[in-house]
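During data preparation, a discrete fold description was generated, as reproduced here:
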Amino acid sequence: MKRIILFCAAALIVLFLASAGCTGEKPVEQPTPVPTTPTEAPPPPPATTAMPTPTPTEPVVTLPPRQNVDLELTKDRVYSRIYLLYNGGGGELFTTKIEMRVTRSDGEVTDYVMSGGKTPKRGDQIEADGTRGSDRCEVWVTSAGIRYKVIDRSLIIGGAYEGN
């Protein structure tokens, strides 16, 4: 009796394999090569932060005395990183936005907004990639609804700027 059941089970397995098409080999089709034409890589996307483009002669101004804030702009000697540190000040109540544009010596221009565009808090900073050469940094502070250009400076390795 066991032999009959075993024989029937084997016959069913063979039947299933045959119906599934597993009993023969199909010839493998070779893919047809598709001619390709070289294409140029798309240009890199522009800076992620939209900032109005200032005129090259936009002057640096001093914030009104009651709106004054303390900013510290430095460039790291080892890694050429540029740091803008916000230390607050008497006008921090009026300050709603701090923006920085870095024009590197290799021509790359990148815009940054401190705190993701939200009101900055003491200790917030912007960190940017610099070069071993002279990089230009421009900083704007929006205070009491008015946008002031407060820093326009070229930084070299080890160069620093403190104040407005």
